Amino acid sequence: MKNIYIEEITVGQKIDSLFLIENLSIKTRTGGLFITCTISDRTGTRECKIWGNRGSSEEEIERYYGLIAEGNIYRIAGEVREYKGSMEIHVNSGIEFLRYRENENNLNITDYIYSPVHPDEIKKQLEKHISGIKDSGIKKIVREAIKTSDGFYEKPAAKKNHHAYYGGLAHHTLEVVEIAAGITDSLPGIDIDRDIVIAGALIHDIGKADTFEKSGISFKPCPTYSLIGHISPAIERISKFRRYTDEDTFNHLLHIIQSHHGTYGDVMPQSTEAWAVHHADNISAMLNEVDSTLKDIKEGEFGWCKPVNSNLYRFPEKRAAGRENKNDQNRPETIREPEPEKQENTAGQRSLF
């Protein structure tokens, strides 16, 4: 039974409810093994550590690890604790409930999929940017690349870190496009090709769609994610459409894909357009990481942001009577669908990309 949501939990609270499990891994600790994962519902995500009962053997922990299937819904019974400024759920005796996953047919699946955006709306906005490309050949390359990328509008942008949620890849792409467009439009004295910038931003992460696969009601990284990454799949995909433009233009698009990680990539950006996309990508990634970390830091306190390798400080918010939080105004309203009928089924910074 779903009786509490991520956004409602507090430190010290004991919980016993249903959540989606993702990002499953097994790790070593002094005296044995433990399981880590992410649990989520429609209101957010939290880290979860599954320790088992006192005296649980390594064999027992490994057995439970083998039983849990990512992308499925499980009963999570444990305690909410604080670790390095962030809330996480610790499961001890509740490990016994992880033997079996819940029957999806008896649940409202939308209660378990976290996404702060509406993918259909993101798709409409991206289509406007595609339609705004003046060069017909470049436009066709972008449109065909996205059209043939299975799950582009549903898959996450990463396993963890920025935009690691349903629809995150398309959302991150939209942010990069709009930031890059803003950079371009704000510098009228700079010689820069707007079509190349917008197209490069639209396809810079297109290869990520090939690094995730369906798992239950969610997505998980496939071997390509770790073995190859997303640059090579992106180049392979758009190479299918190189006939739509001239060699120099196509090579420029390839260069933007190849160089958008900057110092962490194989090559550095070597054109104004490539630099614009690189910085737009970095801004989207870093600011989302900073924002996510700050949400877990109390006002007037410091906290460490691991993805950007930096300390952060949450300034006390100035509140005026009747003024809503700006983030709440922009956040899409969550519409909870009625429950279906029960069925009778028994910088030192490191790369963020």
TrEMBL record:
The keyword Hydrolase applies. Residues 316-344 have a biased composition (Basic and acidic residues). Residues 169-286 form the HD domain. One of its GO terms (molecular function) is nucleic acid binding. PROSITE patterns: HD. Keywords: Hydrolase. The keyword Hydrolase applies. SMART domains: HDc. Residues 316-353 are annotated as: Disordered. Coiled coil: none annotated. GO terms for biological process: rRNA 3'-end processing. PANTHER family: 3'-5' EXORIBONUCLEASE YHAM. This is HD domain-containing protein.
